[in-house]
Specification:
By secondary structure, the chain is α+β, with helices and mostly antiparallel strands. It has a single domain, classed as Vaccinia Virus protein VP39 (Rossmann fold), CATH 3.40.50.150. Helices cover about 35% and strands about 25% of the residues. It has six helices and three strands, in the order αβαααβααβ.
């Protein structure tokens, strides 16, 4: 599975205690398993590795963060999805099918959130 499902997203695994502001890509709808498999094999990592928002935020909690507050959602437009899917360019990554783009429209979102990583207690 993509990096986010295997465990804590890389940016969350080791930060020092304090407040963090993070932006990442999540999915907000259900996808057919075959479509998810195509994402993982052909779409750029941020799309291919995207997981549902509630699952993502639970992973953030498990990484030791508290007071998680989502401050922005930005659903990707068809043009943004196309550009992300072909990153770093169509010469390297084939363009997704029109059907695949239509199937994810409105279901892939950038979230921005703030969270607090408290100091570890003496008994941890």
């Amino acid at each position: 599975m993509p990096r986010q499902r295997r465990g804590v997203p890389g940016s969350l695994s080791g930060p020092a205690p304090g407040r963090a502001a993070i932006s990442d890509v999540v999915v907000t709808g259900d996808f057919d398993p075959e479509l998810q498999a195509r994402f993982r094999s052909t779409w750029a990592g941020c799309l291919g590795g995207a997981i549902p928002e509630d699952e993502y935020l639970e992973t953030v909690r498990q990484a030791g963060f508290a007071e998680i507050q989502v401050v922005a959602h930005h659903p990707f437009s068809p043009a943004e999805l196309q550009a992300m899917a072909c990153c770093p360019g169509e010469a390297f990554t084939p363009a997704p099918s029109t059907d695949d783009l239509a199937a994810v429209q409105g279901k892939v979102t950038s979230i921005k959130f703030i969270a607090l990583k408290p100091l570890a207690s003496a008994d941890e």
